[in-house]
Amino acid sequence: MEFTFEGTDQNKAETAKKVRKFLEYDFQNYLNRAGMHRTDLSSPQLDPTGVSSHGGNSAENKMFRLYDYQAKCLAVYQTIMDCEENENKGIRSKSILKLRYLDDLSDSQVEARLHLSGSRYRYKKNRALCEFADRLHKWATINDTNLPDLSVYK
Fold it and tell me: What is the pLDDT of residues 104-127, one digit of tens each?
């Protein structure tokens, strides 16, 4: 028996563009609202499971939102760290995303650090961004938070 899934043919270029925008703008917004910095994510100690009630009072609601933004940041971090890394196969998704979006290096700095030509780096970065989109839902679910589906389908 063969199963087919509707909408699973990912538009790689549009997905990479959407993920890039998410990591450059939305992720920074989540960090700001969580009162965090990228450096706080190098060894996250967050436990977003501590809030189960949506509460009734304003202080509880504010705390819930704070925990939710921390959970979003943790989900992004875990998604990046879950991306594939296999130097023997030339797959550097985790390194590219970590250096670019967690360590906040420029594209040219990441290129140089990984000893990649410009075109090779762009190809591998787009591949990494699409992989990020594929893995994000898992970590959002584990951290009990909602994040957008970043995949764009043909």
Answer: 999 999 999 999 999 999 999 999
